[in-house]
Design goal:
The chain is an alpha/beta fold. It is 43% helix and 15% strand. β7, α9 and β8 form a beta-alpha-beta unit. The radius of gyration is 18 Å and the shape is globular. The mean pLDDT is 94. Bound molecules: D-glutamic acid. D-glutamic acid binds next to α3.
Length: 270
């Protein structure tokens, strides 16, 4: 019987928004999460580096028994999904962009806004995917380089976060019937985003791909209520720091201790 263990990765704590959904939809899921905090933020990095990180982390997850891998990272999904699927044909690899677009299709008609990292915007992955499935719909994309450092630095709920939200939402005001959160870190800024939008008199409708991405992975991995799995967290950064961050996202009762992983000179993880 194939392994039901689900591997999930991101540059940092953003992918925990997908883990949170996996645990909500399938409390018995067996999950291994890797945060590549040695390289966060991914957003401004050359795309070939992102592809190399994504392939090495997926390979590592495969060696740990994961037959299903979720790139809970939009920039990896935008640039590395096909590369990893070709390189590792024995695992099922999922991204978050198609789930985001499927969720947007179920939303109100009209223009779509996308907030994402500079790399994801530059890849044009969202405008292409939205153009395929919602061809007549205008799309406005906004790169938000300050968001990931604010989230990783624990500065959500501050004046700095609110100011960044106001700046990045301004070009979408009046131009978006719904706004896709095109980076898995951004749901952690939701209170700031809604506060900034309501200060503009905007009842903003947000699309978070996490629920749809989790649903797809659970179906693929064949997780059921009797799996009886556990959550394992690993980081290429500081374990104690990531443990505190994970507890804030997942809750103290859920987040376990964190193991540190290391990048080797040959580009592998161990
Ligand atoms: N959370 C990731 C994403 O969804 C990466 C953010 C970053 O490290 O720049 O794109």
């Amino acid at each position: 019987m194939p392994s039901a263990r689900i591997g999930v990765f991101d540059s940092g704590l953003g992918g925990l928004t997908v883990v949170r959904e996996l645990l909500h939809q399938a409390p018995g899921a067996d999950i291994l999460y890797v945060a590549d905090q040695a390289h966060v933020p991914y957003g401004p990095r050359p795309l070939e580096h992102i592809r190399a990180f994504a392939e090495a982390i997926s390979r590592y997850l495969q060696t740990q028994g994961c037959a299903t891998v979720v790139m809970a990272c939009n920039i990896s999904s935008a640039t590395a999904l096909e590369t990893v699927r070709c390189a590792l044909p024995d695992i099922q690899c999922h991204g978050v962009i198609d789930p985001a677009v499927r969720s947007a299709r179920q939303g109100p008609p009209g223009p779509v806004g996308v907030l994402a990292t500079a790399g994801t915007i530059a890849s044009r992955a969202y405008s292409r995917a939205l153009g395929r499935t919602m061809p007549a719909v205008p799309v406005t994309e906004v790169a938000c380089p300050d968001f990931v450092p604010i989230v990783e630095g624990g500065r959500t709920g501050t004046a700095e976060a609110l100011d960044a939200c106001s700046r990045y939402l301004a070009p979408l005001r009046g131009r978006a019937a719904q706004v896709i959160l095109g980076c898995t870190h951004y749901p952690l800024l939701l209170p700031d985003l809604h506060a900034a939008a309501s200060a503009m008199g905007w009842m903003m409708r947000v699309v978070d791909p996490a629920a749809e991405a989790a649903r797809e992975a659970i179906l693929c991995a064949g997780v059921n209520g009797t799996t009886g799995g556990r959550l394992v967290l690993q980081t290429t950064g500081d374990g104690a720091h990531f443990s505190a961050q994970a507890q804030a996202v997942l809750g103290y009762a859920v987040a376990p201790a964190v193991m540190e992983l290391h990048w080797h000179e040959d580009g592998c993880l161990a």
